[in-house]
Amino acid sequence: MSFSEEHGLHRGLDLIKGKVVRFKEPDPVGKKYKVPQIGWNSIMLPETLHQGKVSGEAGRINPWKNTILKDSRNKSFMYFLHSYIVFVDNPEQCLAVTRYGLDEYCSVLKKDNIVGCQFHPELSGDTGLAILRNFVLQ
């Protein structure tokens, strides 16, 4: 990433243009969202990939084909444990998004041979293990 707010403002390696920021505070109507986010949440197709097609439906194209998410379904649940989130400058580098509190953030990113997941695939059941398998095989 270009920069991060973790433990102060720091420049990153800039291999992927974007930033790492802390979750926003609870929403204005007072609903509390705990930070760090700990637990299960879904990954979804970002609008840039969605284009009216839903992964896994019969007769539809899977936008995650040829990625580490090729065996995942839209809205698959993954295990998260984090206080900081990623925003990429180029939306085409974001394979999946997740919503928590006031934020919708990139939960899976890819640029060339760089891939990153905000969640823990090793703790995310069979779908997470499939993601790890696809990562190794790519």
How would you describe this structure to a colleague?
- The chain has 138 residues and is mainly beta.
- It has one domain (3-137): Rossmann fold (3-Layer(aba) Sandwich), CATH 3.40.50.880.
- It is 12% helix and 35% strand.
- The protein is built from 2 helices and 9 strands.
- The chain has helices spanning 47-50, 125-137, and strands spanning 3-4, 10-11, 18-22, 37-43, 76-82, 84-88, 94-100, 103-111, 114-117.
- Strand 8 and strand 9 (114-117) form a beta hairpin.
- The chain is globular, with a radius of gyration of 15 Å.
Structure keywords:
mainly beta; globular; Rossmann fold; 138 residues
CATH C-level class: Alpha Beta
Main-sheet strand order equals 2-1-3-6
Helix proportion: 10-25%
- Taken together, the total number of domains comes to 1
Number of strands: 9
Sheet with the most strands, sense and barrel status: 4 strands, mixed
Distance between the termini: 22 Å
Mean pLDDT: 87
Brief rundown of the structure:
With 138 residues, the chain is mainly beta. The protein has helices at 47-50, 125-137, and strands spanning 3-4, 10-11, 18-22, 37-43, 76-82, 84-88, 94-100, 103-111, 114-117.
Helix and strand arrangement:
Elements: E1 3-4, E2 10-11, E3 18-22, E4 37-43, H1 47-50, E5 76-82, E6 84-88, E7 94-100, E8 103-111, E9 114-117, H2 125-137
Parallel strand pairs: 1-3
Antiparallel strand pairs: 1-2, 3-6, 4-5, 7-8, 8-9
